[in-house]
Design a protein that fits this description.
Blueprint lengths: L2 H34 L2 H40 L4 H30 L3 H39 L3 H18 L3
Helix pairs in contact: 1-2, 1-4, 2-3, 2-5, 3-4
Length: about 180
């Protein structure tokens, strides 16, 4: 693979990481507003919190699906030494799914509550859940980059990288992922 193509892959991976981190920072910012801006902005901030939580959830579930159905099985065959790291990442996917679903449930419980004390408790729970999910997800992204994505760039031959890209593109087309 020519050097320019490797640089382009690294560049696109870097911008994807930055995008993921920006989404996580946005979630924390919105939840901070929800907690501190008061009643006048509560409805708007709650709607934003729910919207971004749902968007993140959809993106993450698609991302996990793609990795678990295409990327991980491909790497287990072509880079067998990654199997222990892949098992850890799959376990993290399960935990992240649970955390995300808990966060989404809390966001929707908050929507229907009237009691101020109950709302404040749910806002705290939502904020704590978002912080936990954010830091767990950041660590997960770093682990994936250090193991899986690094191996794709450095251990797969050019023809294997092309085959993997084709499989991922095909999967995205079938499943409607971006």
């Amino acid at each position: 693979m020519p050097v320019l193509r490797r640089a382009a892959i690294r560049k696109s991976k870097k911008s994807r990481e930055e995008e993921e981190i920006q989404v996580l920072d946005t979630i924390l910012d919105i939840l901070s507003k929800l907690k501190y801006e008061g009643k006048m902005s509560f409805g708007k901030n709650l709607a934003e919190a729910r919207e971004i939580t749902i968007s993140l959830g959809k993106w993450l579930l698609n991302h996990f699906d793609e990795e678990e159905k295409i990327l991980f099985p491909y790497l287990e065959v072509h880079v067998p030494k990654l199997e222990p790291a892949i098992r850890i990442l799959e376990a993290e996917h399960r935990s992240l799914r649970e955390n995300l679903l808990s966060l989404m449930r809390t966001a929707f419980q908050l929507r229907v509550r009237k009691n101020a004390a109950e709302q404040n408790g749910l806002i705290e729970k939502l904020g704590d859940g978002a912080v936990c999910l954010t830091y767990f997800l950041r660590n997960h992204v770093n682990t994936e980059n250090a193991t899986v994505h690094r191996s794709v760039r450095h251990e797969l031959r050019g023809d294997e990288q092309r085959e993997l890209r084709h499989l991922l593109k095909e999967h995205r087309g079938r499943s409607g992922h971006c």
